[in-house]
Amino acid sequence: MRQFILEKNLEKDGTVTLEGKDFKYLRQVLRVRPGDMISLRLADGSLQNSTVTKIDEKSKRIQLQVCANCGIDDGLGAGGSQSSGGQNSSAKSITRGVQAQEIQAGREKSSDGVAQIEYILLQFVPRPQKFEQIVRQSVECGVKYIVPVFGEYSEKSSIQALSGNVNKKERLERIVKEARQQSGSPVDSVVTEPMTLEQAVEFVHGGKQTAALGESSATQNSTIGFVLSERDEGSVKISEVLAKNPDVKRIAIACGSEGGISPKEVEFLCKKGLFLTVHFSVNILRCETAALYGIAAVQTAV
């Protein structure tokens, strides 16, 4: 875990108490101990270091303190508490390798444009298990919006599984959180409500759907869309397109479901959605592979 996404506000003294699933994840999965350091991603998007100050096994609660040097005192309550006294001079990060702070600093200093561009994936609805994998990988790659699109080749059962399903929505939100924590992504990735193709195109170009999410409208001049195609007719080179558009702010990538994207849908995206077709001279890829391949290809070309 590169960072922990905090879903509640800090107390005035800079502490936060976690319980339930958060306790189970930190204690049983990551096996944190008093004195361990955790990078917290706060609700405002800022990143703060924190230290585990108290663990109460009986009440299943963990307390974190946001500060430079945190003392470790007695547990939250009687029974089952773990603690250590004195100053936290031996605090260690639970993250191995590159820290979340280093990832964010690298993005802020980036001069290649990758970190400054907002990425949108229009994913024509595949089977639920595959969609979850696509969401996880997209979040790790720093995609801002994953938009499920009702496609002509999408199975009705797959569409129904996403439509108005509260449990599915909560599961996807959990997948997003876990992927951000594992990858250290500073991008607040969102899986939107499922959309028709027309609604998805409007979303990409700053329509009503975007405004509803509090985003500023994007102009077509600063937005580029690529649709991944199995055929090479009219295919463009991503690098050449991006070289001609150095001021691009948003890049959308449309990826088909198991059956791909219908010719009618490709035509709509190109004519009305202002997308460009891209064909990769490789074998036919599964939809979950194609989405990741497409995102990587675009980010590499920026």
Give an overview in words.
The longest helix is centred in the middle third of the chain and has 18 residues, at 166-183. Helix 3 packs parallel to helix 5 (166-183) and helix 3 (128-140) runs parallel beside helix 10. The chain has helices at 21-29, 100-109, 128-140, 156-162, 166-183, 197-204, 208-212, 238-243, 263-271, 287-301; strands at 4-5, 15-19, 36-41, 47-56, 61-66, 81-82, 92-93, 118-124, 145-149, 190-191, 223-228, 250-255, 275-278. It contains 10 helices and 13 strands. A hairpin with a 4-residue loop joins strand 4 and strand 5. The chain is of the alpha/beta class and 302 residues long.
Helix content: 25-40%
Largest sheet features: 7 strands, mixed
What percentage of the residues does DSSP assign to strands (E)?
Answer: 15-25%
Our count of helices gives 10
SSE ordering:
EEHEEEEEHEHEHHEHHEHEHEH
Name the structural class: alpha/beta
Assembly state of the chains shown? single chain
| Overall radius of gyration | 22 Å
Overall strand count: 13
Distance between the termini: 28 Å
Mean pLDDT: 86
Poorly predicted regions: 83-89, 208-220
Shape: elongated
List keywords for this structure.
elongated, 302 residues, alpha/beta, 13 strands
List the helices and strands and how they pair.
Layout (H helix, E strand, L loop, with lengths): L3 E2 L9 E5 L1 H9 L6 E6 L5 E10 L4 E6 L14 E2 L9 E2 L6 H10 L8 E7 L3 H13 L4 E5 L6 H7 L3 H18 L6 E2 L5 H8 L3 H5 L10 E6 L9 H6 L6 E6 L7 H9 L3 E4 L8 H15 L1
Parallel strand pairs: 1-3, 3-7, 8-9, 8-12, 9-10, 11-12, 11-13
Antiparallel strand pairs: 2-5, 3-4, 4-5, 4-6
